[in-house]
Amino acid sequence: MRCLRLALVRNESYFPTAMTDLFSPDPQQNLLPYDGEVFDHGVIFSPREADAWMDELRHSVPWQHDEVMMFGKRIVTAREVAWYADAGISYRYSGVVRHPHAWSQPLLALKAIVEKRCAVVFHSCLLNLYHHGEQGMGWHSDDEASIVVQSPIASLSFGAERRFCFKHKREARSCETTLAHGSLLVMQGATQQCWLHRIPPMKSVKTARINLTFRQMVLR
User: Fold this and answer.
1) What number of CA atoms fall less than 13 Å from residue 79's CA on the CB side?
2) What is the model's pTM?
3) What do you get for the CA distance between the two ends of the chain, in Å?
4) What is the dihedral of CA 213, 83, 57, 161, to 10 degrees?
5) Digit-coded pLDDT (tens) for 133-181
6) Which pLDDT tens digit goes with each residue over 92-134?
């Protein structure tokens, strides 16, 4: 089964494809009430395509457990990560400097699809692998100095459906959406400066999820 799926993913005619769903959310409708912009493009791949990408990424990406600094201590997370970027780019977050892998052909294909949707060029991609619903991500903002301020951050999801929550940094306002298998969500404008976001644990979820966040980096 995996051989068939990999053949589908690696076929050059497959790479540019993305599904157009007449019943998908309106990508021009802002999910935030103010102080930022979040656009839900909905599911952009067919179930077969999304399954193939999930299988390809699960087996071809060199996953490693993440390391973050919390209260002055280095913590190794249960989820696994990988970071890809253009040559010469480094990325610092949670007190740790990351050095990227060179782009693979599958990731360049996904990058091209997302860039076409967003009409921008991305310089890097951070991948997260959540093995099951008890693994999540706490409240945070993607506002590191190495990311271009207020630039689009495109979040592509494969695998288990998960909640994606926002809360305002200064006001008692919150909202959330659901990230489905093969879906694309884009955050831009003042979102990172004014809102926190997280992936909460969901004990009922027993299967894995892979998330890719494409970013524009400050080029030095």
Assistant:
1) 22
2) 0.86
3) 44
4) -30
5) 999 999 999 998 899 999 999 999 999 999 999 999 999 999 999 999 9
6) 766 677 789 999 999 999 999 999 999 999 999 999 999 999 9
* Residue with token string 């951070």: 126
The 8-class DSSP code of residue 218 comes to P
Contact 113, 43 (CB under 8 A): no
**Are 201 and 133 spatial neighbours (Cβ–Cβ below 8 Å)?**
yes
Rounded to the nearest 10 degrees, the angle between the axes of helix 47-60 and helix 105-118 is 130
H or E stretch covering 212:
strand 209-215
Q: Are 184 and 114 in contact (CB under 8 A)?
A: yes
Tell me how far apart the alpha carbons of residues 151 and 32 are, in angstroms, rounded to a whole number: 16
* Angstrom distance (rounded) from CA 202 to CA 162: 8
Q: Do 205 and 153 touch, CB atoms closer than 8 A?
A: no
Nearest to 169 by CA among 138, 199, 139, 213: 139
Q: Are 203 and 134 in contact (CB under 8 A)?
A: yes
Cβ 35 vs Cβ 195: under 8 Å: yes
Distance CA 60, CA 37 (A): 33
Class at the top of the CATH hierarchy for domain 2-215? mainly beta
User: Helix or strand or coil: residue 159?
Assistant: strand
Kindly compute the dihedral angle of the four CA atoms of residues 121, 126, 131, 136, in this order, to the nearest 10 degrees.
-100
Instruction: Please tell me the chain's helix, strand, coil percentages from 3-state DSSP, rounded to the nearest 5.
Output: 20, 40, 40
